[in-house]
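Here is one chain, start to finish.
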Amino acid sequence: MNKLVIVFLSAVLSFNISARNTAGIIKKVPYNLTVECIREPIYTAIEDSKPEFSWFIPEQAVFQKGYQVLVSSSLLNAVKNNGDIWNSGEVKSSKSADVELVGTALKPNTTYYWKVRIADKNNNFTNYSKVQKFITGSFKGDLTTSNFFRTEKIKPVFSRMNNDGSYFIDFGKDAFSSIEMHYTPQKAEVLNIRMGEKLLDGKIDQKPGGTIRYQEVKLNVTPDKSSYKVKLVANKRNTNELAIALPDSFPVLMPFRYAEIVGADNNYNPNQTNQVSYFNYFNSASSAFTSSDTILNKVWDICKYTMKATTFAGYYVDGDRERIPYEADAYLNQLSHYAVDNEYAMARKTIEYFFNSKPTWPTEWQMHVPMMVFQDYMYTGNTELIKKYYERMKAKTLMALEVEDGFISTQSPNLNGDLMLKLGFPDSTKVLKDIVDWPPESNNFGGVKGYQKGEQDQYVFKRINTVVNGFYFHNMKIMAMFATLLNKTDEALDFELRAAKIKKSINEKLFDVEKGYYVDGIGTNHASLHANMILLAFDLVPDSRKKSVVDFIKSRGMACSVYGSQYLLEALYKAGEAKYALGLMSSTSDRSWYNMIRIGSTITLEAWDMKYKTNSDWNHAWGATPANIISRCMWGIQPILPGFELVGIKPQLADLTNCSIVVPTIKGQIVGEYKKKSDNMTEYTFVLPANMVAEFGVNLPSKSEIKLNGLTVSPINGIIRLNPGVNKIQIKREFI
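Its structure:
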């Protein structure tokens, strides 16, 4: 981590800059206003006629006791505090996010202005915030606002003239880009422009393999012209009717890091060539991380940048090969995106895509959609997607496929054309197929071409599949919460009963008591990493069985794909196996995130290495699991109540000696710092934004002294309450 970031973290901890502007001035009014969670709504269209408003609370307020929102038809009215469209009045509430407009709906394609003031902890109102402008869209049906794209013109970080007179350029990072040149030749020339993601012997690899990208185009240049936009050739597979279409204003984009210019004369200056990269809105300052583990720091960096680089399409897509949203890919992308930037619109837009466009074939992928809606609710507090898609989410849980003992199976007679249509498939003859992990073992999928040994740990597929039913249990728990939220009491009870039944059946019929692990399904004695890590991750393993299950999981190593690693790491942290989990994230084997860096990528790969999936790409966001595991599991920072009304902080930092993190939330940044002072003394410092409380908990030995801001405290049920501002926790362990 560079010195700038270290200084930044120190400043956060010393001055709580989550409540200040970049000049260090304390904020005295609400700030960071958003409409529909969009931070700069002037640049996009708000597609909800009754949008939600959010804001950050000034530090001096500590807690919000009330608010008043004004929405105006003109800037003049807004300046004069005339909420002629909506005046909420003085509302007694701590709610600072997801405050919905009440009353008459807004008009489509219209400009509005809004601002807010809040009552502080003493019930004294602040002045109003700055006015924010926003423009409504056409209200065609989707709840989610259109995305806001930006371009960055990136200069070379390195260039050289080769012995043959050609030029080599390194732009530093792979990005979905086009290329522009500023060059005035002495005579008319035809240049060869090469672009690629991978090097071979110091030059761009022209046959990189898989779907690693390379392209060469010709460019005619003349002395009477000095600026050129290089036109790339579109890839037919990722620009067909199935792929996400880019806006008409975009040029053809391709991910590349390197360029070679062949045929230019000595007037050519490589520094006048730009990589024109396309990103959705992304604020890199929203998050930060550093630790005593230098490899872990590099892993976090590549995962964070992956979140930025893969926003180019405005949806969560599977990389450049297809540019199609896949449900499981999108779920992992969502978790990591939330961990590095408080941007929620893209996840919502992708969720709506899964309900309104073509779903994909894997059984478990369907069940990732309710999981995405759940995470949206927990991170934002917004219930619109739940209300709109509740009935259709029932189909996504595949509860229609229940067979005996509460299990579900794709061999159920209810897997028919009617269900496929309910799931959104345009062709009722399509069928679902259990996937477990990807790529598959060839013996399970009838010899799939293009793959080496698969990533399913020799999983034995049976009529009753353990992994599928683990996801089903998790879906039932989510739907019970949603039904309760919507006051559907009978349905909530039904979901809870289904969850209880499947949990009982899994533990009675799929656990090998003698060997201490779960088998892959009914009718096989084979046990895979996947069957056990999924059940542990989804809280299906009783405490009495956790040790033997964890021992089995650890015996399998990283016997899963980059997708499966999400659930492996979640399972390990739930079991308190922080040291082993940290070792996996910091590993330097060929099945590691460091391997992606070592072979030359700056965006995470689709697979651990090309030898594990021969058609892999080098720009796949589902490979960026550590971005969310570090904050959600290693630091244990997750919302307990929706919209971060209550936050859990339960660090498991293993043998790190120091570590700092900045986590974005809808209420502001959570800043954490850890120092191991000695073998028996550790110190945590947390800075919480105004209007946020947290529950801090770590596993403690029987005798330990805990001080919070210098005062001795006793945890209640292992929990210490943290309030807005600086919270310094010192833990002294007394050894007997």
